[in-house]
Amino acid sequence: MDTGVKHQIISHSFGNEECMMDMGSEKYGCSHYQRRCKIIAPCCNEIFDCRHCHNEAKNSIEIDPINRHDIPRHEIKTVICSLCNTEQDVQQTCINCGICMGKYYCSECKFFDDDVSKNQYHCEKCGICRTGGKDNYFHCDRCECCYSTKLKNSHICIERAMHHNCPICFEYLFDTTRDITVLPCGHTLHLHCVKEMERHYQYSCPVCSKSYCDMTRVWESLDKEVASTPMPQMYQNKMVWILCNDCGETSEVNYHILGHKCLNCKSYNTKQTRGGHTSCSSVLPEMIR
């Protein structure tokens, strides 16, 4: 069915058409995109290289919080050719010099990009353009976002999974340009942020606290530490209730300063819910090191 939306990558041809497609390619644009046009923001009527340049400028700390805003990308109506400076309606080919302003172009997103190695495609259900190749991704109707086909039958669905800020850096995930990873629990965050967590020996989801990697060896090491660290006599018979962050079960266990082991799944990723001073897995970073 024809939606009237143009999102395509121009293929190479011969003669003048090929010249117009390549002239100025990779010489214009910004740190975000290679393109041969600038946009006029409909919200503030100012000129920017792309929507990210606008959002970074208009949301900087120097801007009065009252005036901070993001550009409504789908409302962009006017662009300026970078080669001849002709102001015109949004379109792929300049009406004056005939240059191709972006080898990839989407009329719905008002999006231009000369770097077609990203394998851009427009997702009708997301309503935005994405990268990585349409055949490599699928749209999950419950999560309301696109995931790698590798996760099609294995990911845990969470409603509107990416329609929120990254719990680490607080950047909005749905239209971020950075790589995103899906944790086994179904929550999403930037891949860079996960790696940053691991550099600080944090291996649990910042949203639900479930472990996102195999912690078996860590728990075995902690078993040995607990066994070799007897509690003072006044605490040896002290019992506390714990909640396991990994399996969700509650258990009554012996109190220990180093941590409390879930009786169901044997995880130390637990928190004390009743009885005595609150104790959690504060020693885990030291155990992992």
From TrEMBL:
<dbReference type="InterPro" id="IPR001841">
    <property type="entry name" value="Znf_RING"/>
</dbReference>
<dbReference type="GO" id="GO:0005634">
    <property type="term" value="C:nucleus"/>
</dbReference>
<dbReference type="InterPro" id="IPR037274">
    <property type="entry name" value="Znf_CHY_sf"/>
</dbReference>
<dbReference type="GO" id="GO:0008270">
    <property type="term" value="F:zinc ion binding"/>
</dbReference>
<dbReference type="InterPro" id="IPR013083">
    <property type="entry name" value="Znf_RING/FYVE/PHD"/>
</dbReference>
<feature type="domain" description="CHY-type">
    <location>
        <begin position="23"/>
        <end position="99"/>
    </location>
</feature>
<keyword id="KW-0833">Ubl conjugation pathway</keyword>
<feature type="domain" description="CTCHY-type">
    <location>
        <begin position="101"/>
        <end position="165"/>
    </location>
</feature>
<keyword id="KW-0539">Nucleus</keyword>
<protein>
    <submittedName>
        <fullName>Uncharacterized protein</fullName>
    </submittedName>
</protein>
<keyword id="KW-0863">Zinc-finger</keyword>
<keyword id="KW-0862">Zinc</keyword>
<dbReference type="InterPro" id="IPR037275">
    <property type="entry name" value="Znf_CTCHY_sf"/>
</dbReference>
<keyword id="KW-0479">Metal-binding</keyword>
<dbReference type="InterPro" id="IPR017921">
    <property type="entry name" value="Znf_CTCHY"/>
</dbReference>
<feature type="domain" description="RING-type">
    <location>
        <begin position="166"/>
        <end position="209"/>
    </location>
</feature>
<dbReference type="InterPro" id="IPR039512">
    <property type="entry name" value="RCHY1_zinc-ribbon"/>
</dbReference>
<dbReference type="InterPro" id="IPR008913">
    <property type="entry name" value="Znf_CHY"/>
</dbReference>
<comment type="pathway">
    <text>Protein modification; protein ubiquitination.</text>
</comment>
<dbReference type="Pfam" id="PF13639">
    <property type="entry name" value="zf-RING_2"/>
</dbReference>
<dbReference type="Pfam" id="PF14599">
    <property type="entry name" value="zinc_ribbon_6"/>
</dbReference>
<dbReference type="Pfam" id="PF05495">
    <property type="entry name" value="zf-CHY"/>
</dbReference>
